[in-house]
């Protein structure tokens, strides 16, 4: 979603055109809400069938559109499952594939979770069967699966971004909420992501709102930068680009979160030095040429992007500018014991013989 659309939804874009757009979107919101509620009622009351896998299924999802940090969370979860002796597989929809076979998220998760089967298919029930029969998986991680209810899950992990927890307070298309907040009653564990970027009072307010809908534990987390990597695998430490003139670009769901990450690393990037593309953007030769020209105009020493964007680049330079991406990992600000206990219970309830 581009900057103009976000400014309209958030209310920061003023003027008659923005007001008219918000009014039109508000008229469509009740129709979307009705569709979501009817669909959920179908699953809740058994009118729609839920297919169960013979092995544990753990979903990582959210209630808003945009980036809440699902990819680093899935990577953490896969590693945790491997440490327990499980053979996890990842199931995802495969939105906006790059070559007809895989998208940027799969390429990134393949790099973060080498050797772990990752099946992409809008029909995740079929993918689950394949993961069991063809890949010999003993557990499944459903990436972005909170709304995909046809495949039953044994644990729902829901991510809520502390910087915009409720999607401007409205359901799609007027806001960013994919479901009403009451849907949190399906969550087993909630992770408050980017909690390090808001104060304790704000986190408590979010927790109080969550508690209105579910008794699930809500754990504060952050995404910690661990260093930089480029397209050919070279690495730098987290402080390796200090005192350099940096420009940045990204095509992700939460560019503001990326900008905050860079600022926290001592690489402040003003609006004029951050070029934002739509989520899952496919860069072509013209895009790269313009990025290189833009970097030269800014007299940037280098360009910085996200790992999700880096997997779509084959060269370590754009024009004369070296390109580095930020490596991030999930870190817990609260004790992760409630999540680990829920995961152990999930594995124990349904383990293959």
Automatic annotation (TrEMBL):
Pathway this chain belongs to: Glycolipid biosynthesis; lipid IV(A) biosynthesis; lipid IV(A) from (3R)-3-hydroxytetradecanoyl-[acyl-carrier-protein] and UDP-N-acetyl-alpha-D-glucosamine: step 6/6
Record keywords: ATP-binding, Kinase, Lipid A biosynthesis, Lipid biosynthesis, Lipid metabolism, Nucleotide-binding, Transferase
Class of this enzyme: transferase
Presence of the UniProt keyword NAD in the record: no
EC number: 2.7.1.130
Entry binding sites for ATP: 64-71
Taxonomy, superkingdom: Bacteria
Signal sequence annotation: none
Chemical reaction(s) catalysed: a lipid A disaccharide + ATP = a lipid IVA + ADP + H(+)
Keyword S-adenosyl-L-methionine applies: no
InterPro entries found in the cross-reference section: LpxK, P-loop_NTPase
Record HAMAP family: LpxK
Function: Transfers the gamma-phosphate of ATP to the 4'-position of a tetraacyldisaccharide 1-phosphate intermediate (termed DS-1-P) to form tetraacyldisaccharide 1,4'-bis-phosphate (lipid IVA).
Record-linked NCBIfam families: lpxK
Protein name: Tetraacyldisaccharide 4'-kinase
Organism of provenance: Maioricimonas rarisocia
Gene of this entry: lpxK
């Amino acid at each position: 979603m581009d900057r103009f659309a976000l400014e309209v939804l958030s209310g920061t874009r003023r003027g008659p055109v923005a007001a008219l757009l918000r009014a039109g979107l508000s008229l469509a919101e009740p129709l979307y809400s009705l569709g979501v509620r009817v669909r959920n009622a179908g699953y809740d009351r058994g009118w729609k069938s839920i297919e169960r896998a013979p092995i544990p299924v753990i979903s990582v999802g959210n209630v808003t559109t945009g980036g809440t940090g699902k990819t680093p969370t899935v990577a953490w979860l896969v590693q945790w499952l491997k440490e327990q002796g499980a053979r996890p597989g990842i199931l995802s929809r495969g939105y906006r594939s790059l070559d007809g076979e895989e998208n940027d998220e799969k390429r990134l998760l393949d790099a973060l979770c080498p050797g772990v089967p990752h099946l992409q298919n809008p029909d995740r029930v079929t993918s689950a069967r394949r993961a069991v029969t063809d890949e010999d998986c003993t557990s499944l991680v459903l990436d972005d699966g909170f709304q995909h209810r046809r495949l039953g899950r044994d644990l729902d992990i829901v991510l809520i971004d502390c910087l915009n927890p409720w999607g401007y307070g409205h359901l799609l298309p007027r806001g960013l909420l994919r479901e009403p907040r009451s849907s949190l009653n399906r969550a087993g564990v909630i992770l408050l992501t980017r909690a390090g970027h808001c104060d304790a009072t704000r986190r408590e307010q979010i927790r109080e709102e969550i508690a209105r809908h579910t008794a699930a534990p809500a754990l504060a987390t952050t995404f910690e930068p661990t260093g930089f990597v480029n397209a050919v695998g070279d690495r730098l430490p987290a402080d390796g680009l200090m005192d350099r003139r940096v420009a940045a670009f990204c095509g992700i769901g939460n560019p503001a979160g990326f900008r905050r990450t860079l600022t926290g690393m001592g690489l402040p990037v003003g609006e004029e030095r951050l070029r934002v593309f739509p989520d899952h953007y496919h860069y072509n030769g013209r895009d790269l040429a313009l990025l290189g020209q833009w970097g030269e105009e800014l007299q940037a020493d280098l360009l910085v992007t996200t790992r999700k964007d880096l997997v779509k680049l084959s060269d370590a330079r754009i024009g004369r500018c070296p390109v580095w991406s930020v490596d991030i990992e999930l870190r817990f600000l609260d004790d992760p014991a409630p999540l680990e206990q829920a995961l152990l219970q999930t594995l124990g309830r349904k383990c293959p013989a």
